[in-house]
Amino acid sequence: MLLVVYGSKHGSTEEVAAAIAKRLTKAGRDVELRRARDVEDLTAYDGVVLGGSLYFGRWHEDAVRFLSKHRRELSERPVEVFALGPKTAEPEDLAQSRAQLGKALQKVPEVKPRSIAVFGGAVDPSRLRFPLNRMPASDARDWNAIEAWTDEIRRTT
User: What is the domain range of residue 21?
Assistant: First the structure.
């Protein structure tokens, strides 16, 4: 069974994790979708897809905690990692977010993800508190890229 697990603050990363789980399930994989903070044991899973949002240069604390807490188990099974971060899908913004994700992953060197992806994020001001609720709405998630990455996972796990 494959675990798709995520840390999401305002729902955007959760939506991507759910889309990944759904696509993998349609492809015939046995998949469970869970919040990172709710997972206590990885015994039932033969692989993990871990996602988290990036906020102000840091990966979501639930994703970081999950990675640290389960580092031994994650070092023994296939792991795929994704993050949602920049407000645009411009190459320089994605590269900066990938570097931020890399810093979080460096803290757990025994976990070696087979693939790492960074996708544009989404901002829904109605879900944010002041002063962030004054930001313009945006959605830089590239669903075609998310589907293509998911298909790569399906072929390799």
Answer: 2-156
Residue 25 is inside which H or E element, if any? helix 12-26
Instruction: Tokens for 99, please give them.
Output: 């570097």
Q: For residue 47, is pLDDT > 60?
A: yes
Band (156; pLDDT cuts 50, 70, 90): confident
Structure tokens at 91: 């190459």
Number of domains comprising the chain: 1
Report the CATH number that the domain containing residue 52 is assigned in CATH: 3.40.50.360
Contacts of 75 (CB under 8 A, 6+ apart): 110, 111, 112
Q: What are phi and psi for residue 74, nearest 5 degrees?
A: -70, -25
What is the token pair recorded at 28?
A: 């015939």
Query: Per-residue pLDDT for 35 more than 60?
Result: yes
